[in-house]
Amino acid sequence: MSSPRGLFERFERAARSDPSQTLVRVCGNETKLGASRLLDRAHAAAQALREEGVARDDLVALTGSSGAPFVTGALAIWACDAVLLPADPLVSHSELEELHRSFMPRWEASTGPSGEIQVEKTAAPERLSLPPETAVIKISSGSTGRPRGVAVTADQLLADTAHLIEAMEIGPNDLNIAAIPMSHSYGMDSLLMPLVMQGSPLLVVPAPLPHLLAEALSDGQPCVFPGVPYLFDLLARAGGASPSFKKRGLKRCISAGALLRSRTAAAFRDKFDLPVRVFYGTSETGGITYDASLTGDAAVSADGCVGTPLPGVKVSLDGDEGRVVVAGANVASGYVGPCGAALDGQFEAGAFRTGDTGRLDPQGRLHLTGRIGSLVNVSGRKVNPREVEKSLESLEGVSDVAVLGVPDAARGEALVAVLAGDKSLTLERTMSHLRSTLAPYKIPRRILFVRELPRTDRGKLDQDALRREVLGSRAASEEAQDV
């Protein structure tokens, strides 16, 4: 079993095999960092951590760092055989305090632009109990609103990376476009770990701006773009001439982190003549499925189609609801911290029962159909909000939609639909469409029209913000009549 230091040693071998290779570039400026220089920075940062007292199995929160500084900090922590607790670089002060309360890191570190590292011992009252050889605690959203920690070992990280590299055909010299945070599970698995494992270089996009993304995707070096639906939608809607990505080095575009709508995938493909290949994974398992088909059209064919299982990953469906169960060497050790117990995700021996439901089609592709616990009980009838969302997505003029259940004195729960779209959307037209496509009990009791739905920087629907918006809105003009 590999310790966290094994990850650093893996990178050390890759860097020394080609010390002159540029491993990190920054889009929009001339910043470049070669393998030898990055390795030197990591060694120096690790030495600074040791001098302060960081030791094996210590939990170190890495804060305020992105791009090359994040890479340096993560490598330095692993070089000390310590455990990485990555914090989003944009985390607020209160969120950082919650991270400290939940996981009690022994140290807090941050890395500067030149690789210099600052570390401070925390006032944590005790140490968090971690499974053996934990290398990183990935942060996942807890059902209570508090962060949930997922303990992942070096071996589990390496197994997941091997699956991704094989399925996505990522070579050691392929450039990964880094436009998503490496502190999140998706970015760590798709960007940091290929660099650690085989020296795959990074082109950092410092801000999600259309011109910077277009510049990065037009790079002449063979490259791969792991993005989120928001970024592909942003590029598809951006004005101006379409860059000819296919004539440059861009090999493939990959979308994960949130549901990639078929219309977004189709709009991007039509504009740039390139498919967006959908990828599905979780913090608890790493990668699960990927669209490795010749055409890469799984996302265009149907909303919720996420491709076939990755090499080395076994996917099964459990129970009448079709709960997605994942098994493989990539499955994490388990939850840690105060939000460990979860109804929507459960670890079993060598497997993880996700909170997602799905079905398998004749081609062996997984289609996600909903979430465990997301069914809304309307007067004793169970309604899947995703079914109502699909109906509304087919209404002309709708650009984004979410449906959720809220408490209702008469019915137990009631459905509320939140829609974003153009000026053609009216309450009357929306209700007419719903009545023509759904049973009466599945029709939302209330329709809320908004300019845009709240989403996280990964493109995921911000459920807490959406629920606050729904419960806080009382405008009579936004209410649909009873049916």
Short description:
By secondary structure, the protein is of the alpha/beta class. It has two domains: 4-368, ANL, N-terminal domain (Rossmann fold, 3-Layer(aba) Sandwich); 376-478, GMP Synthetase, Chain A, domain 3, CATH 3.30.300.30. The chain is 30% helix and 28% strand.
CATH topology of the largest domain: Rossmann fold
Summing up helix and strand content along with how strands pair, one would put the structural category as alpha/beta
Mean pLDDT: 89
Strand order of the largest sheet: 2-1-10-9-11-12-13-14-15
Poorly predicted segments: 474-483
Q: What fraction of the residues are assigned to beta strands by DSSP?
A: 25-35%
Full CATH superfamily name of the largest domain? ANL, N-terminal domain
The Rg value, from CA coordinates, equals 23 Å
Number of helices: 13
Largest sheet: 9 strands, mixed
> What's the CATH first level of the largest domain?
Alpha Beta
Q: Give the total of beta strands.
A: 26
Question: How many angstroms does the end-to-end distance come to?
Answer: 61 Å
CATH architecture level-2 label of the largest domain: 3-Layer(aba) Sandwich
Shape: globular
Number of domains: 2
Helical residue percent band = 25-40%
